[in-house]
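queue> pop job 88
queue> type: inverse folding (structure -> sequence)
queue> payload:
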C-alpha cells in the first residue's frame, strides 16, 4: 500500500506541475513529518527554495501551491506559517479509512517490492574447531533479521554461511590428533566441540614451538589440498563435529542458513589468480602475489597490498572472498551482496570490494555492502568475558538467559498466586529468554558497541522484548476476557478515531510500511525495534485512557479493531526480527 507520505507526495507533485510547470521540475518537495505536532502532521518546506529560484516571495509561492493542491479528502485546509511553511493536518475520516484498509490486509499495508532481486546475505560464519563466540551471535541475529525483512519485502534471499572450514589450521589439528587422539579422525562423535577447541589450542602451541611438528602439519595441509583420502576423511569428521554443535545454536535461535564454507571456493582460487594476472593487476611483493588499490595504506602511510597468494603458494581469507564475490554474482545471480560481520573486518571488505571493482567483476547493477556491527561488552564496559576471563560460550550465554527468565517468571507467578504447568513455564522461559537476547542486540544501532546485561534485557519496562511481548499478551487477554473472535469482527464495523490516544495510535500504526521499507534499504533493524517500542507505549496509553470491552458500540468494535491491529503489527514486526510472540506469559 502507498504510505501517507507517498500519497501526499503524489498530490504535491501534481500541484507543483500545475502551478509552476517545467520551472519546478526536479525541485525537492521537502515534505516531512511536522516538526511539532501542534502544527499538524506533515509540512512542506519547498516554498523557500522555490521562491529563491523563481524570484518570488515564499509566502506567495506557498499560496500558489495550496491553490493548486487537491487534497481535501486527506487533510484539513492547509495553513501557511512563518516564511512559507505549509502545514498539513490529516483528517480523522481519512485516517479511519486508512486504518480500515491496513486492518483488512494480511501484510498490514507493507508494500511488496516492484523490483524483486536476488540478495546474497553472508552471515554467522563460525569457524570449525573453534567455539562460536558473541561476534558470531551478533552476525547470526542481525543477518537473520535482515534476511527476514528482505524476504518479506519480496526479495529472493540466499542465506549463506561462510564457515571457516579450510586452511592451515587443519594441518596442525589433524597432525596433533593423529598423535594424541587418532580415533577422533576415524570415528564420528569421538569428541565434542569443547574437546576440539582444547585440542586446537594445544595443536597451535605445538605448531608454534616445534619445528618438526610444523613441517608435518604443512605436509598434512598439502595432503588435504591434494585430496588424500585419509586426510579428507579426518577433515570431514572434524567439520561434522563442529557443524553439529553450531546446529544446536541455530535450532535454538530458529536460524536457517545454507552452508557454503571456505572449502567450497577452494577449487575456484587458481582462476582468481590467473584472471588477476591477465588483467595485469597482480604484483610480486616480497615473494607474495598482491594487488594494490588506491586509498589503502598501512600505519606508516605506505600502500597496503591485498595479498592474494602467499610465498608458499597458499591462499588467503581475501582470496576466498574474491572467489565468493564472483560466484555470488555470476553463478547465483545476486544483485545485492550483503556481508554481516564485526566492524573489525571493515577494511578487509573495503579492500576486497575495491579489488573486485578494479578487476571489473562487479557490474553496474550490483550492489555490494559490508554491514558492520560493534562489540558486545560486559557490564564492566570491556569485551564480554566469563568471570574467569575466558570467552563466553554461546550455549552458556543462551542457557543463562533462559534460567534467569525462569527465575523472574516463578517469582512473578508466586506473587500473583498463579498456578501454571511445567510446560507453560518451560515454554515461556525459553521464548522470553531467547527473545530478550535477540532483541537486546537488534535494538541497538548495530554500528555501536553494546553492554550485555541480563537485567536490562529481561526488564519488563523499557525497550525490551518482555515489554513488547506484554503488549501483545495484553490484547490476547482482552480477547479471552471478552470472548472476542478477532478474525470475525463485524465486517461492516467502522474505525472511529475520536480521542487523542486513538488518533496517536492510529497514526503510528500507519507508519509501519514506511519503517519496514526504509530498513530494507539501510539495513538498520533497530529502527523496527524503535517503532515497535513506540507502538507498545502508544498502545498502553490508549489502553489506559480508552475503555475497550466496556465501551458502547460502535466504539467498542472500533477499539477492538485497534487492539487487534496493534497485536498483529507487533507479531509481524517481531517476526521480522526473528522473535516469536506468546499468547500468555
Ligand atoms: N569466519 C569469519 C570469522 O569468524 C566470518 C566469515 C565472514 N564472511 C566472509 N565472507 N568473509 O570472522
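queue> result:
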Amino acid at each position: 500500500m502507498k504510505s501517507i507520505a507517498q500519497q501526499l507526495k503524489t498530490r504535491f507533485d501534481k500541484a507543483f506541475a500545475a502551478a509552476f510547470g517545467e520551472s519546478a521540475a526536479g525541485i525537492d518537495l521537502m515534505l516531512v513529518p511536522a516538526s511539532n505536532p501542534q502544527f499538524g502532521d506533515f509540512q512542506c518546506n519547498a516554498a523557500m527554495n522555490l521562491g529563491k529560484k523563481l524570484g518570488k516571495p515564499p509566502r506567495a509561492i506557498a499560496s500558489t501551491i495550496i491553490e493548486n493542491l487537491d487534497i481535501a479528502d486527506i487533510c484539513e485546509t492547509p495553513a501557511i506559517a512563518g516564511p512559507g511553511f505549509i502545514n498539513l493536518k490529516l483528517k480523522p475520516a481519512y485516517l479511519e479509512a486508512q486504518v480500515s484498509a491496513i486492518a483488512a490486509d494480511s501484510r498490514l499495508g507493507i508494500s511488496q517490492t516492484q523490483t524483486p532481486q536476488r540478495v546474497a546475505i553472508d552471515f554467522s560464519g563460525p569457524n570449525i574447531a573453534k567455539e562460536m563466540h558473541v561476534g558470531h551471535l551478533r552476525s547470526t541475529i542481525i543477518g537473520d533479521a535482515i534476511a527476514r525483512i528482505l524476504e518479506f519485502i519480496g526479495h529472493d534471499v540466499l542465506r549463506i554461511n561462510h564457515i571457516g572450514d579450510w586452511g592451515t589450521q587443519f594441518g596442525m589439528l589433524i597432525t596433533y590428533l593423529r598423535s594424541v587422539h587418532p580415533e577422533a579422525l576415524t570415528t564420528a562423535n569421538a569428541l565434542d566441540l569443547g574437546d576440539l577447541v582444547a585440542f586446537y589450542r594445544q595443536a597451535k602451541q605445538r605448531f608454534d614451538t616445534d619445528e618438526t611438528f610444523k613441517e608435518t602439519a604443512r605436509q598434512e595441509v598439502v595432503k588435504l589440498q591434494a585430496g588424500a583420502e585419509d586426510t579428507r576423511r579426518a577433515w570431514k569428521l572434524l567439520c561434522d563435529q563442529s557443524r553439529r554443535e553450531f546446529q544446536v545454536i541455530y535450532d535454538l535461535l530458529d536460524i536457517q542458513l545454507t552452508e557454503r564454507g571456505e572449502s567450497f571456493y577452494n577449487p575456484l582460487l587458481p582462476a582468481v589468480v590467473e584472471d588477476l594476472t591477465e588483467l595485469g593487476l597482480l604484483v610480486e611483493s616480497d615473494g607474495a602475489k598482491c594487488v594494490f588499490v588506491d586509498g589503502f595504506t598501512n600505519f606508516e602511510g605506505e600502500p597496503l597490498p591485498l595479498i592474494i597468494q602467499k610465498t608458499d603458494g597458499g591462499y588467503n581469507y581475501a582470496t576466498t572472498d574474491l572467489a565468493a564475490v564472483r560466484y555470488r554474482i555470476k553463478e547465483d545471480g545476486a544483485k545485492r551482496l550483503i556481508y554481516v560481520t564485526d566492524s573489525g573486518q571493515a577494511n578487509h571488505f573495503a579492500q576486497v570490494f575495491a579489488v573486485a571493482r578494479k578487476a571489473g567483476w562487479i557490474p553496474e547493477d550490483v550492489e555490494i555492502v559490508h554491514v558492520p556491527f560493534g562489540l558486545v561488552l560486559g557490564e564492566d564496559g570491556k569485551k564480554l568475558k566469563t568471570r574467569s576471563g575466558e570467552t563466553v560460550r554461546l550455549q552458556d550465554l543462551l542457557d543463562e538467559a533462559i534460567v534467569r527468565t525462569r527465575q523472574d517468571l516463578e517469582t512473578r507467578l508466586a506473587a500473583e498466586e498463579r498456578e501454571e504447568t511445567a510446560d507453560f513455564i518451560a515454554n515461556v522461559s525459553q521464548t522470553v529468554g531467547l527473545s530478550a537476547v535477540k532483541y537486546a542486540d537488534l535494538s541497538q544501532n548495530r554500528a555501536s558497541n553494546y553492554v550485555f546485561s541480563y537485567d536490562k534485557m529481561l526488564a519488563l519496562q523499557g525497550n525490551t522484548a518482555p515489554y513488547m511481548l506484554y503488549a501483545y499478551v495484553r490484547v490476547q487477554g482482552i480477547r479471552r476476557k471478552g470472548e472476542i473472535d478477532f478474525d470475525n469482527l463485524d465486517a461492516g464495523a467502522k474505525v472511529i478515531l475520536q480521542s487523542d490516544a486513538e488518533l496517536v495510535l492510529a497514526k503510528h500504526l500507519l507508519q509501519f510500511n514506511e519503517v519496514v521499507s526504509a530498513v530494507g534499504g539501510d539495513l538498520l533493524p533497530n529502527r523496527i525495534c524503535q517503532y515497535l517500542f513506540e507502538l507498545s507505549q502508544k498502545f498502553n496509553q490508549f489502553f489506559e485512557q480508552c475503555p475497550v470491552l466496556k465501551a458502547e458500540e460502535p466504539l467498542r468494535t472500533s477499539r477492538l479493531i485497534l487492539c487487534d491491529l496493534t497485536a498483529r503489527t507487533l507479531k509481524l514486526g517481531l517476526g521480522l526480527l526473528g522473535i516469536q510472540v506468546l499468547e500468555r506469559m
